[in-house]
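Course assignment 3, question 2. Fill in each field.
Student: A.L.
Task: Predict the tertiary structure for the chain below.
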Amino acid sequence: MPLPNRVGPDGTLFADPARGTFYGNRGGRFHDPATHAVPTRIQASRQWLCCVLSFKGRRHAVWGRGYTGLFFCDEVTALAAGHRPCMECRRQDALAYRAALMRGLGLERAPPFPEIDRILDAERRTGRTKRMHRLPAERLPDGAMLRCDDATVFLALRGTCALRWSPGGYTGRRERPTGTVTVLTPPATLAALEQGYRPQWHPSAQAFGAA
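Answer field:
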């Protein structure tokens, strides 16, 4: 049976056979290694990371006594949930993300990553509840993730369309929405996307056209 260590665009944890294309954590252990039940906590710290699946041959007992390892469909999903690129295993991506975020927020200096984590933490949650943002669709960059009126349907903006998300990849396309929409991706990350940060998509997105 798969563990409830897959992460949805809304940050929730669930079980699914799809492994995903990215790994990550939330700053330590917040699961119960004895029961492997869905955790009542949502994090161990503000440091929510998006990592590669394999790094320097390291081995980690998933949901053992170490940190709570998580899996994402792709980086677009991880960013929507409120994670950011890991500075250790994805250094170039992390620096590119920070530089784009700095431009997008109009900062005069590059913020340390703990400061970025504080910004993201305020934007991604209210207590244990996912914080969402009502924004004009026309101003949103590619890679932004939306929640539809049906709370189980998520759409990722890509080019002229919106791709329907699933744990195992994207399953269909719709016209890019207009008007005010419900956005899952934190505003700071939206600013980074607007300023040129390019997240990695699940391979299934290629079937629906280029970003």
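Instructor remarks: The mean pLDDT is 95. DSSP finds four helices and 14 strands in the chain.
Grade: pending
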